[in-house]
Amino acid sequence: MHVTSLPMRWKSGDNYCYILTDESSNKSWIIDPAFPNDIEEYLLKKNKSDIVSIVNTHHHNDHSGGNKYLSTTIFKNIPIIAGHDSPGVSYTPSDNEIIQLGDNIEVTAIHTPCHTQDSICYYAVDKKTKQKCVFTGDTLFISGCGRFFEGNGEQMDKSLGKLMSLPSNTIVYPGHEYTESNVKFSLSVLGQKNEALNNLKNFCIKNEITTGKFTIGDEKLFNPFVRLDDPEVLKATGLTDPIEIMDKLRIMKNNF
Ligand SMILES: [Zn+2]
């Protein structure tokens, strides 16, 4: 398994497009190619027939905005795998449905409604090398989560719970590079003594790109949105009910 991270709309939206490749067959998915102009250099070099599907994590324009152009020009008539609300979608996998990519990659579609109701995360496992990764769109960010545009804290808690049940060595590929600002908020909630969070802060000082460098196991240590029983989170929110804490954390982050 190989993942190429392609930054788009850098310093304004900090979006990522990803190419997930099965190395044995060289077949790839292109995930969230919202701004084709920003990834033109890569697309010109790539053998077009190796891209077998356009895939979206959710319908927002900064994830699905390239569907129409790409499926009518460069990647004519290839399937668009996404939730029901994405433009031009041709296939919506059901929750936990497994889709084969090339010879060795099995991708499980995990429905994670809240940021949008059509949010789907894609958990990819290479059967041969045992590599694992998950494309989390705007549901899970490194040390953060997406805004609750179409859902509530209860839904986000359930959706993040599904992702946290994945193997701890699963690498996280989020929809945006928001880590630096997330760390500032997480420090304000989890305090200065969280070692994993301090390590993440130091990583951000030295590295502009953090996607693909951290795992589900790391999130459990440094992401306040999945540490709803952490004494520091209880103290910062002044609440004890996990759903109420989730809603309050999101409001605190929105106003941070
Ligand atoms: Zn979004």
Could you characterize what this model shows?
This protein has 256 residues and is α/β, with parallel strands linked by helices. The protein has a single domain (2-254), classed as Metallo-beta-lactamase, Chain A (4-Layer Sandwich). It is 31% helix and 23% strand. The protein has nine helices and twelve strands. The protein has helices at 40-45, 61-64, 67-72, 153-164, 179-190, 195-206, 216-222, 231-237, 242-254, and strands spanning 2-8, 15-22, 27-31, 51-55, 80-81, 98-101, 105-111, 120-126, 132-137, 140-141, 144-145, 171-174. The strands form three sheets. A five-stranded mixed beta sheet has the order 1-2-3-4-5. A five-stranded mixed beta sheet has the order 6-7-8-9-12. A two-stranded antiparallel sheet has the order 10-11. Strand 7 (105-111) and strand 8 form a beta hairpin. Helix 4 (153-164) crosses helix 9 and helix 5 runs antiparallel to helix 6 (195-206). The termini are far apart. Residues 58, 60, 115, 138 line the site of zinc ion. Belongs to the metallo-beta-lactamase superfamily. Glyoxalase II family. It catalyses: an S-(2-hydroxyacyl)glutathione + H2O = a 2-hydroxy carboxylate + glutathione + H(+). Pathway: Secondary metabolite metabolism; methylglyoxal degradation; (R)-lactate from methylglyoxal: step 2/2. It is an enzyme of class 3 (hydrolase).
What is the molecular shape?
A: globular
How many DSSP-defined strands? 12
Q: What share of residues is helical? A: 25-40%
Report the bound ligands by name, code or SMILES.
zinc ion
The SSE order reads EEEHEHHEEEEEEEHEHHHHH
Give start-end ranges of low-pLDDT stretches.
Answer: none
GO biological process, one term: methylglyoxal catabolic process to D-lactate via S-lactoyl-glutathione
EC number: 3.1.2.6
Family: Belongs to the metallo-beta-lactamase superfamily. Glyoxalase II family.
Catalytic activity: an S-(2-hydroxyacyl)glutathione + H2O = a 2-hydroxy carboxylate + glutathione + H(+)
